[in-house]
Amino acid sequence: MQYGMMDSYGYGMSFGIMGILALIFWLLILIGLVLLIKYLWEGGTKKEESALEILKKRYARGEISKEEFEEKKKDLI
Question: Which of the chain's termini has less CB crowding within 10 Å, N or C?
């Protein structure tokens, strides 16, 4: 019997290349699923801060006084 380039299982050298390609394919599918789940978990987009949240942070850092905070809060609400 002459097997040529075949291994003992009869698949030949192409089985190694096909196995690597299949592994790469499934790794890409897995990475895509992980990224999709991450995207959906975070709500799809980055949430922007509202003007009131920014105002509260500025007041908490001491950048504006209580009077300024109350005045600007009334303008926003």
Answer: N
- pLDDT at residue 60, as a whole number: 94
CB 55 within 8 A of CB 72: yes
pLDDT value, residue 41: 85
Q: Consecutive sets of 10 residues in the chain, 77 residues long: mean pLDDT of each?
A: 53 69 94 93 74 91 92 88
H or E element at residue 10: none
Amino acid at 52: L
Find how far residue 65's CA is from the centre of its chain.
Answer: 39
Domain ranges of the chain: 1-46, 47-77
The pair of three-digit structure tokens given for residue 3, joined into one six-digit string: 């097997």
End-to-end CA distance of the chain: 88
